[in-house]
Amino acid sequence: MVVKVHLAGYEEFSKFFDKFEASGKLVHVYFTGSKLPSGESWCPDCVKAWPIVEKQISQLPEDSHFITVEVGDRETWKDPNCGFRKDARTKLLVVPTLIRWNKPQRLNGEQLEKPELVEMIFNDDD
């Protein structure tokens, strides 16, 4: 079974990844806008991308990790000093973004609306 983790905000993200040992594990991190009371993200691109990403999660190997990180509300995300923008581990410019942790594979924004690209990042070997 894929290990799923949900993190909310930069502080929670930092605490988790400061302790997380990713060595030898297949880890994907999905950055998205935080959810509104309706349950959907404030980010329209994130709303479009999520069903495509979610469908592919089940194709990941059983011992892999899928980590969802909510970057905050729109105001927090748009702040040029947002921690996710400044952190060398993430270098986020766009949400949604899907990365393979500690690897070069990355999909940003509208790329995540293409099932074949999402499938490729999940299945492509290093």
Describe the structure.
By secondary structure, the protein is an alpha/beta fold. It has helices at residues 10-19, 44-57, 74-78, 83-86, 115-123, and strands spanning 3-8, 27-32, 65-70, 97-100, 106-108. The protein has one domain: Glutaredoxin, CATH 3.40.30. α2 (44-57) packs across α5 (115-123). The longest helix has 14 residues, at 44-57. It is globular and about 35 Å long. Keywords: Cytoplasm, Disulfide bond, Redox-active center. This is Thioredoxin domain-containing protein 17.
Give the rounded overall mean pLDDT: 92
The first-to-last residue Cα distance is 21 Å
Please name the CATH topology: Glutaredoxin
What is the ordering of alpha helices and beta strands?
Answer: EHEHEHHEEH
How many domains comprise the coordinates? 1
CATH class: Alpha Beta
* Proportion of residues in helical segments: 25-40%
Instruction: Characterize the main sheet.
Output: 5 strands, mixed
Low-confidence stretches: none
What is the architecture at the second tier of CATH? 3-Layer(aba) Sandwich
- Content of β-strand: 15-25%
The computed structural class is: alpha/beta
Discrete helix count: 5
- Count the beta strands: 5
Report the CATH superfamily. Answer: Glutaredoxin
**Strand order in the largest sheet:** 1-3-2-4-5
Q: Give the overall shape, derived from the CA principal axes.
A: globular
